[in-house]
Write a structure and sequence with these properties.
Layout: H1 2-15, E1 22-30, E2 36-46, E3 53-59, H2 71-78, E4 94-102, E5 105-106, E6 116-125, E7 130-140, E8 150-151, E9 155-158, E10 164-165, E11 189-196, E12 202-205, E13 208-211, E14 214-219, E15 225-228, E16 234-239, E17 242-248, H3 254-275, E18 281-284, H4 286-292, E19 300-302, E20 305-307, H5 312-332, H6 337-359, H7 393-402, H8 419-441, H9 443-456, H10 464-474, H11 481-484, E21 493-501, E22 504-511, E23 519-525, E24 530-535, E25 543-549, E26 553-558, E27 573-575, E28 585-589, E29 599-612, E30 616-624, E31 633-642, E32 648-658, E33 665-680, E34 683-696, E35 704-717, H12 721-725, E36 731-743, E37 748-758, E38 762-776, E39 779-793, E40 802-803, E41 844-845, E42 848-859, E43 862-872, E44 879-891, E45 895-903, E46 906-907, H13 914-917, E47 919-922, H14 926-933
Parallel strand pairs: 1-11, 17-18, 28-29
Antiparallel strand pairs: 1-2, 2-7, 3-6, 3-10, 4-5, 4-7, 8-9, 9-15, 11-14, 12-15, 13-14, 16-17, 19-20, 21-22, 22-25, 23-24, 23-26, 26-27, 29-30, 30-31, 31-32, 32-33, 33-34, 34-35, 35-36, 36-37, 37-38, 38-39, 39-42, 40-41, 42-43, 43-44, 44-45, 45-46, 45-47
Helix pairs in contact: 3-5, 4-5, 5-6, 6-8, 7-8, 8-9, 9-10
Length: 938
């Protein structure tokens, strides 16, 4: 009788639904420990493809949490998140059992641990025909910490766990994997979901609740449920007669709710005016809030100080406008996120830009922070960043990633986008382009087109490229967008010069593309009065001269405020009067800053740093043109006073990088550099270099980097009397050619480098491989292999030999505190190079050497290490050496201390001079800290 009752309930739940739409009826029971979900499901599925189907594909995405080899695990590792990789069995999610029937006939199912379940059909399902399946299955829910969905001590969040058809791939062409990118799975479906929950638990959903624990209705997005012992707040808003209930999957502070009750009506009214969309209900989960809130408006905390950029009310307004806008777009527009992510993301950013222009037109990017006083002054006022408007954040973010040639094309598949490009390209660049188009054609015309497009695509999958076609038909100046999104943008407009003729200014504008992209020209008087002109650039000629009224024009600007995603804004400004007429002004600045494209900026930075025991502290100034953004041409000159010698020392360099947008090469850099410092007491060295580096292109989500470098270096050293007697080298030239490969992924980190170095007296080849395995959370095993061989060695002494436990820094590239120290604490500094031995094993190698260095975690910051190697010197027998000991990682990879225990020399703690045998590494490289921090973003 129980089975008959379930079948009747399932039948009644489906019968009321139109035969033209899919429907899913679910009876779900959650276990008392909130770990298991038992599901009875009836699925009415239509063939949405244009051909007969022999199989029906169902998505079983809970299996993405089942083992280490899934796409979800790999994506989390790309984001430097190892939680799922190291998860215990009870924390994983999986499909425990599954039974599928059609008309009381059981259907065989492939391996239930697969994310794609293929159901074979006895008869082909014709286009438009319907088939029904009855499913009974049991799910072990994963821990919620992995993706925000699953179970925890306080909540159960359900999304993507129920087995559903794949509406985006009805032809079964490919398998889809769950990678936690919030992509749509099942749309335009009528849902009926009834829950049996443990006592005292409540449930919220984006579906309409019809009675206690029961939900019904159509959804153009995937259903989401939050089960908790708490009842969370909701806010009701009436927008022009339409009631909207906004439910929150988390608690709101009283002041936050009060702010939202004020701002939400304004936000919904604004969104409705722009898109025509006002839903009856919205559900905002904690995960959705953290993903879609406003980036960059949080307070800045430093030590015991806290600096507010915006008031709590402003933060609530900025955060929730983007959250609400994106939620409405997600619930109303059906797109394949993998291929068309840019459409809804771009519309969200477009709405944000318009909202900021209306309500925050003069608000600065740093909010109230520049007004902060320290000792009675406002130091941040010295930065151009303090004058950047909040509306300029979109163009600036794109500029930042583009300047490193790490941007991606707009229509890149979403799963391949780096986390930073998700924001900079999919959201900000696309939103900027939509805003630019709206500015040209008129905002009302653009908004009308958006509303019309959404309206006629209600409840069906949308092709955003059709929107671009309609946009071009509405205004042919937007026709370039269809091709534009398929390539990395490097479009650049340039103000070449102007010439005054009578009451007119003849302004010459050039561009680097044949695309017919209009450009916005703006003139400004000394009093700040502005006039705008839209300039069409159609035709084969890349240069155009336009005539505008001269009036009292003081400055001419193209695409001001980063309104179009150009490759370079530094050539968009000209002055019409004064000393700098027909050019840009020069500005001297003290501290690295967001670049001001209006000026040629030279940064003059005071420098005080400790160099080594010979030069001691270096005091001076650094002159450079490098801002917070990378640029192609860079120069840096740093004259300093050496407190250790009382002499002038320093360095200088000039480099230029080619950054091809779409090539196997990410960057090709040519440069020259020179330096003069001291390497011993009263002994200086001079170094001059000419070099070139090639960095190969990589997927920005990838942790792999590859590059080739070639350099010529000239060295000149002062020699003391003893060195002259040894006939040491005072001048020498070095050629170097090398290839490097590195993969800094979370679990299996590895690198390989091969290098050859030569001069007239020697030629040697060196290879180094490194592997580090994280075998448990924060517990790692590393192995380094080194091999070096002299093809030719006619050197006069051991200067260029391979080191065993110490390196000979003849190229002055290791930043040793005591370059020539032979005793004392400075000589105990350890550099992982050449043989890499930690014990002070005497001698150097002038023929060949191979070594292996092993290091593994033991407990917390304590490691043990072991080194072994074989080497041979000319006219000497082969030698085997080894050592072992304990390493303490005070600051991992930056400050580490080595305590030798046993080695080829014996039991070292028993030596009287043991304190002198302790080694340490000290790496003071801020760049390494920054690179480590940004892993997982790009």
């Amino acid at each position: 009788m129980k089975k008959i009752s379930i079948c009747l309930i399932l039948f009644v739940g489906v019968a009321e639904v139109s035969a033209q739409k899919d429907s899913i009826y679910i009876e779900a029971r959650l276990s008392s420990d909130k770990r298991m979900l038992d599901v009875n499901e009836e699925l009415a599925y239509h063939n949405h493809s244009g051909k007969d189907l022999q199989t029906v594909k169902l998505l079983n995405w809970v299996s993405a949490y089942n083992r280490r080899e899934t796409s979800l695990v790999y994506r989390k590792l790309e984001d430097r998140n190892t939680d799922l990789h190291f998860a215990e069995q009870h924390e994983l999610g999986k499909l425990i059992s599954l039974q599928v029937k059609n008309a009381d006939q059981e259907i065989p199912v492939n391996e239930i641990s697969d994310e794609n379940l293929m159901l074979p059909l006895k008869e082909a399902l014709a286009p438009g025909a319907q088939i029904k399946f009855q499913l009974h299955y049991r799910i072990q829910l994963p821990d919620r910490k992995f993706t925000g969905y699953g179970t925890s001590d306080t909540q159960v969040a359900l999304k993507y766990f129920f087995i559903v058809p794949d509406h985006f791939d009805p032809d079964n062409i490919s398998t889809r994997k769950y990678v936690d990118i919030e992509e749509a799975v099942n749309f335009n479906t009528y849902w009926t979901v009834n829950f049996d929950l443990p006592v005292n638990y409540f449930i919220e959903s984006n579906l309409q609740q019809v009675q206690m624990n029961s939900f019904k209705g159509y959804l153009d997005s995937d259903p989401e449920f939050l089960i908790s012992q708490n009842e969370y707040p909701s806010i009701r808003v009436n927008t022009d007669g339409t009631d909207t209930e906004i439910k929150f999957g988390y608690n709101l502070k009283p002041e936050e709710k009060q702010n939202l009750e004020f701002y939400l009506p304004l936000q919904l009214k604004f969104i409705k005016e722009k898109t025509g969309l006002v839903p009856e209900r919205l559900f905002i989960s904690e995960k959705f809030r953290s993903k879609e809130d406003f980036f960059g408006n949080n307070d800045i905390s430093f030590w015991k100080f806290r600096f507010k950029l915006f008031t709590d009310a402003e933060k609530a307004d900025l955060d929730y406008f983007g959250i609400i806008a994106k939620k409405i777009l997600d619930e109303s527009i059906i797109t394949d996120k993998q291929n068309n992510h840019w459409f809804k993301n771009g519309l969200k950013s477009y709405l944000e830009i318009q909202y900021l222009k209306k309500f925050y037109p003069d608000t600065k990017l740093l909010g109230a922070l520049p007004e902060t006083k320290i000792f009675g002054i406002k130091p941040l006022k010295l930065f151009h960043a303090s004058n950047v408007k909040l509306t300029e954040r979109y163009g600036l973010t794109y500029q930042y990633i583009m300047s490193q040639n790490l941007d991606q094309k707009i229509d890149e598949k979403y799963a391949v986008l780096s986390n930073f490009n998700d924001m900079a390209i999919s959201n900000f660049e696309t939103g900027t382009l939509f805003s630019y188009a709206a500015d040209k054609m008129g905002y009302e015309n653009f908004d009308d087109l958006v509303q019309e497009f959404i309206s006629k695509n209600t409840d069906k999958q949308t092709d955003p490229r059709e929107f671009l076609k309609e946009l071009a038909e509405k205004d042919k100046r937007n026709a370039y967008l269809q091709d534009f999104i398929q390539h990395k943008n490097r479009v650049n407009f340039k103000l070449k010069r102007f010439k005054k003729e009578g009451d007119s200014l003849n302004v010459k504008i050039s561009k680097n593309t044949l695309e017919e992209i209009s450009v916005k020209l703006q003139t400004e008087t000394r009093e700040g009065e502005k006039k705008e002109y839209w300039i069409d650039t159609a035709g084969e000629d890349k240069t155009k001269t336009v005539s505008i009224p001269a009036l009292d024009v003081y400055k001419i600007t193209l695409n001001d405020d980063y309104i179009f995603p150009e490759a370079n804004y530094r050539d968009n400004f000209l002055y019409a009067k004064g000393l700098f007429s027909n050019m840009r002004k020069v500005k001297l600045k003290l501290i690295k800053d967001i670049p001001n494209p209006e000026f040629n900026e030279i940064y003059i930075n005071p420098r005080i740093r400790f160099s080594n025991t010979y030069d001691k502290f270096l005091i001076g100034f650094n002159f450079k043109n490098q801002s917070l953004f990378d640029q192609k041409f860079l120069y840096s000159v740093t004259p300093t006073y050496s407190t250790g010698t009382g002499k002038l020392v320093g360095s200088g360099a000039v480099a230029y990088s080619f950054l091809p947008a779409e090539s196997m090469i990410r960057s090709l850099t040519f440069g020259v550099s020179g330096s003069r410092f001291h390497y011993d007491y009263d002994l200086a060295y001079k170094k001059a270099s000419v070099y070139s580096n090639i960095s190969f292109r990589k997927n920005p989500r990838s942790t792999v980097s590859r590059g080739i470098s070639i350099s010529y270096n000239y060295f000149e050293r002062d020699l003391n009397a003893e060195m002259i007697l040894r006939n040491d080298y005072d001048r020498y030239n070095l050629w170097s050619l090398g290839y490097g490969y590195s993969d800094n992924q979370s679990i299996h980190e590895k690198s390989l480098s091969v290098n050859t170095q030569l001069m007239k007296d020697f030629n040697k080849v060196t290879a180094e491989g490194f592997y580090r395995w994280e075998f448990a959370p924060r517990q790692k095993l590393s192995v380094r292999l080194f091999a070096g061989y002299f093809i030719k060695n006619n050197t006069r002494n051991n200067t260029f030999n391979y080191g065993i436990s110490r390196v000979s820094d003849y190229s002055f590239s290791y930043n040793l505190l005591g370059q020539s120290a032979t005793g004392g604490i400075l000589s105990q500094q350890y550099i992982l190079a050449d043989g890499g031995f930690k014990s002070f094993i005497p001698g150097t190698v002038n023929k060949w050497i191979t070594s292996v260095n092993v290091d593994t975690s033991v407990w917390k910051i304590f490691h043990i290490y072991a080194d072994a190697g074989v080497y041979q010197n000319s006219s000497r027998p082969t030698q085997f050496i080894w050592d072992s000991g304990v390493k303490v990682r005070v600051i991992p990879d930056f400050l580490e201390i080595y305590f030798p225990v046993q080695s080829s020399l014996g039991f070292e703690p028993g030596f009287k001079d043991y304190a002198r045998r302790i080694r340490y590494t000290l790496i003071l490289n801020l760049g390494s800290v920054i690179n480590a921090a940004r892993r997982g973003w790009y």
